[in-house]
Amino acid sequence: MPVKTAPTAEELLGDDLHTEVVGHFAARPGAPDTAFVAVQVRECLRYLYLVSRHPDRLGGLFLPVEQDIDEIWHYLVLQTREYRELCEERLPGGRFIHHRSISYEAYQAAPGRATAAEEALRWIPLYTAAFGPFDEAALPHWTVVRFLHDELGLSLAEIAAAAGEAEAPSRGAA
User: Fold this and answer.
1) Are 61 and 53 in contact (CB under 8 A)?
2) Global pTM value
């Protein structure tokens, strides 16, 4: 059975809102270039796509992406009509995704460090199944993947291989 390709950021937001969001964040003082901001928007929408598609596995977990991605999510939430349509009509879960801010320190204290790490790692196989392996452009935006790459020295290929191994048991059970 062929795997359905996940929609792009432009498909999820529509061209006008995508251009608006990228333009807003690229115009901020000291902002990175437009191409980098477009990847930030893409990764924010990939995060929302995964939360929508896997509420049973990801619901309530800490945001495993950088603060810049969370700021894009805040911007989208403030576009109330478009955000509701995104959640209910374009994302696979068809339900509104609520946002709640909590610091990493507060989150880590609640479930404990080991649980926080396990939950962060839960994203990787779901991401690679939907979007393919993490690429160099996505790497700066996903905290746990960047940690595995920069601090533990794993290549993106090794991270993808580990993600495939982690996902394999659940594929067989389907």
Assistant:
1) no
2) 0.86
